Fold Tyrosine decarboxylase 2-like isoform X2.
Amino acid sequence: MDAEQLRENAHRMVDFIADYYKSIESFPVLSQVEPGYLRKLLPDSAPDHPESLQQVLEDVQANILPGVTHWQSPNYFAYYPSNSSIAGFMGEMLSAGLNIVGFSWITSPAATELEIIVLDWLAKLLNLPDDFLSTGPGGGVIQGTASEAVLVVLLAARDKFLSRIGKSSLNKLVVYSSDQTHSALQKACQIGGIYPENCRVLKTDASTNYALSPDLLNEVISQDISTGLVPFLLCATVGTTSSTAVDPLPALGTVAKRNGMWFHIDAAYAGSACICPEYRPFIDGVEEADSFNMNAHKWLLTNFDCSALWIKDRKALIQALSTNPEFLRNKASQANMVVDYRDWQIPLGRRFRSLKLWMVLRLYGIQHLQQYIRNHIELARQFEDLVSQDHRFEVVTPRVFSLVCFRLLSPDDDGDKGNKLNHDLLDAVNSTGKIFISHTVLSGTYVLRFAVGAPLTEERHVNEAWKVLQDEASKLLASVQNN
Ligand code: PLP
């Protein structure tokens, strides 16, 4: 690594990226390439001799960017956002520059200690109970994703139960969630050896706005107990992936406590909104939770990946995940004086991810971050108004945060035709390249999702997106009427 060469190349790369952001609106938001497009454009094998950065950047421009879906475009409204920011970007750069591997405290004390401090900061910003702070028996850790977070939580809960009831009782452990819970939980169950027949996916519907019913949960738990099964994990969601449903945490927490279960809260997307006092009530009830997770990389201006997980009983996590090979032994670890985050996660190696969260919190400050969230929610509210004013459309579920679930009404009121119509509208809109939205299915109905949350999105982008949707809807309805 030659320092001067780094300086020159990195400056050029930053220029390239800055130019990309300047022209980001000129690209189709959803990549329009066909599968396998890149193999035709690149050589079959790596070069024998070094090429220049200029050549590589030309290839990026000509061959890679067409195959990129532009998540940072202000016209990106699909899935959930995955934020980038100058602060987050610089944190990533610094992390790449230092390139430490902070699995044990000794391998870079600052990496471990900054992560502890920054997660305490964020816990305080979210007004999480003190039990989640590093000063008590719990603490926070940065995982790569919400999927990793729920997996390590499931393993901790599983082993805590098995140590009490015996390893041979694995087949008795039951997990509870709703049919709106992210599939990450199912994957965690598969990896964690939970018997598929013991995964209770409880049905939701429009009567609860797709939130999990505590009464139904109670009923199912009672049945399971009566057949000798052991309820061990309840996963609630604040801001479900399909429609931002909010499970009733206080009531669910009571059920979990009464049955001695581990209570996990997945607030991957909506957790960011809870830094605003007016949205914090959505996580009231977190006091009863054993673990809480939110993705700062979704909607808190922290570049991917940065999934914050807090746990009340860090010992449970460490007992499930710790190993102690000779080659990792050192004085600080052996004396139990430090946190070794390798025991809080699946891999050994870990990046210095707290740098970017630290930079985001410091360079933007709490008030600016709150304003950022409020602005997106206001833009979503405006979009919801636009949809409501056009009698050809309907808003399907009440908007809670910055996601609007809506659909084009079928002229002949036919469910299947209505689903096809909306599927066609999604394809038509995304094929324009002007915007990118995604879909879900709620109670058998195909629904369009418009998620505001890209950092560059302004009111004009929302208005233009609505115009694209209206124009494509008009064309579709005309073609349906002509057939
Ligand atoms: N949970 C919720 C509520 C989500 O919306 C998502 C993704 O959108 C996930 C979990 C999975 O996130 P990750 O990609 O961080 O595993």
Remarks:
- Residues 394 and 407 are 6 Å apart (CA to CA).
- Residues 80, 145-147, 182, 184, 237, 239-241, 266, 268-269, 295, 307 surround pyridoxal-5'-phosphate (CB under 6 Å).
- The first helix runs from residue 3 to 22.
